[in-house]
Amino acid sequence: LVGHFQWSLSCLGVKVERKAGFKAPIWGLLLVWDACSDALITFDKENLQDEMAYIVENNIIVAALTKQLENLSDQVRVQYKSKVVKYTWPKSHQVADAIPWVQVTLANGQTLQTKLLIGADGPNSMVRQEAGIPTVKWNYDQSAVVAVLHLSEPTENNVAWQRFLPTGPIAMLPLSDTESSLVWSTSHRHAEELLQLDEESFVDSINTAFWSNENHSELVETAGSLFRTALSVLMPSAGSARQLPPSVAGIGPKSRVMFPLGMGHASEYIRHRVALIGDAAHRVHPLAGQGANLGFGDVACLTQLLSQAAFNGKDLGAMQHLLEYETERQRHNLPMMAAIDLMKRLYSTNAVPMVVLRTFGLQATNTLPAMKAQIMAFASK
Amino acid sequence: PNEVKRFQLLATKWWNEQGDFAALHSMNDLRVPFIRDNLLNAHGGRQPGKPLAGLRILDVGCGGGLLTEPLGRLGADVLGIDPVADSIGTAEVHAWHDPDLRGNVRYRAITLEELSEKGGKGAGQFDAVVASEVVEHLADLETFTLCCNQVLKPGGSLFITTINKTQLSYALAIVAAEEVLRIVPSGTHDWDKFVSPVELERLLESNGFHVESIRGMLYNPLSGAWSWTESTSINYALHAVKLEEEPNPDEDDTEDPTVIVAQAKARRWYN
What we know:
Oligomer: heterodimer
Subunit structure (chain B): Component of a multi-subunit COQ enzyme complex, composed of at least COQ3, COQ4, COQ5, COQ6, COQ7 and COQ9.
Membrane topology (chain B): Peripheral membrane protein
Number of helices of chain B: 10
EC number (chain B): 2.1.1.64, 2.1.1.-, 2.1.1.114
Shape of chain A: globular
Distance between the termini of chain A: 17 Å
GO molecular function, one term (chain B): polyprenyldihydroxybenzoate methyltransferase activity
Strand order of the largest sheet of chain B: 3-2-1-4-5-8-6-7
Helix content of chain A: 25-40%
Largest sheet of chain B: 8 strands, mixed
Distance between the termini of chain B: 57 Å
Strand content of chain B: 15-25%
Number of strands of chain A: 19
Strand content of chain A: 25-35%
Order of helices and strands of chain A: EEEEEEHEEEEHEEEEHHHEEEEEHHHH
Helix content of chain B: 40-55%
Shape of chain B: globular
GO cellular component, one term (chain B): extrinsic component of mitochondrial inner membrane
Radius of gyration of chain A: 23 Å
């Protein structure tokens, strides 16, 4: 990523330099709450003065990147509609007549050679598999349903909402005054059912998911409100006023799709002359909105290290700086992935002890501005 | 073909970043920026992406080309020379694979003296001469200095990295590095041939150079990395510049290096 478009994304704090002419709706506030209790947590910058995060539609990003690539056409060549059929890896020692670089064979018969191959081919990365890099992975028994939502009435749409249902989190992310984006993680079966529903029933189920209280148990409610009272004695000024999410009236045509969710982490991000970035190296649950951000972080780190190496006249495929990239990114990504996985498991249950635990946890965190600031800072890196 | 195979075998030694020459590979992290930045200061950046474009550099004692290649990648026209033909063969084979290097990196199995003779076509050709980890292997530094002077353009730069002659350097560079830790193969260095920065500076300054900077280098055997340091007690890097020539009042032939050596010796004898 070069030029005007510099990302340092997180779901909680984002810095985007905007290219003139495209708009990215802003989050002022992120509000997350539990379906099994009244516990909620809000993340916001004080007085909503600064923007906290941006959500940008994927096709806007892609369009901006494509335009930038066109500007760099004498240095970057994009070959569309090409598929790789084979990778040939360099031997670790020089063999007679063998080329010491990576060879990439395309479906059209063309062969490319490169000093450094960057695998950015997603969670089922062929580069990673062909390189024989072991991956720790498991499937969550969940799929995510995404759609564009039309709100019942235009509103100052600057709040992102996420509610943890027992089946999985449902999130509504603002796109404009009248539209929001839906990310609903739930069981495979439920996801398929949601896809089959007619528009009206689908909309109903979304509204119910956000508004209904049927998962509350008395015990949890009592415990929760007692704890909240205790907290308000200790820290009277903290805590958040409850806002209500907007209700949904319709969905964008053909915008409803689903995809399976899982977690994955490549045990190595690099090999001789190979580097993995983005989902090829790591795959997370969408509940924290961090997946793409981890990828952008990889890009920023690798770009910087490669620039330094080039300025020192190094062979770009050499191990020294690739190892630095791997170390730096694994140190950052692994804690984040562990946290996301933990959150997912924590919120996947109705069991009362877990609900009470997370209710207390959420409420407590909500009243501790220092802890929330830490969370926001970490996610912004 | 047999020769090529031999060079490729040698290449696995030279070019293995974790092998026998690992310390030399990681020394590039210091010496490439040292050369690059001092040349940029003197000549200004030419092209983005090729900071050394348009400059002619001579890498004396280039071995397998470990330093020659990065300089070539930065855009310079580099000639690497080494008396050991096998090393030159290895260097050529390794560089040949990289299209970025084919055009501007060349090697010759030749000594500096041969190159600087009139017939060797080396006179006054280069913007910079690099002699990294070389002078500690030479018996006759006087001749070496004169030859460097010969091949450099006036105002050209001489970059030397070498080992100081101190008790500390004996303890570390010979005993520790060669015998105990085996950072370099045993017998690589002869402590008697080490030269202190003061001595080297004196030698250069009395042979038409002005020494611009001397910096200490330190190797950490645990991390395998080099760093700059205050002390020049063990390893150090030196940058000198060839003075612009003044017209010589003597009428003797000043082009033949042996005559120059004789004249220099005579001058010193009188002084």
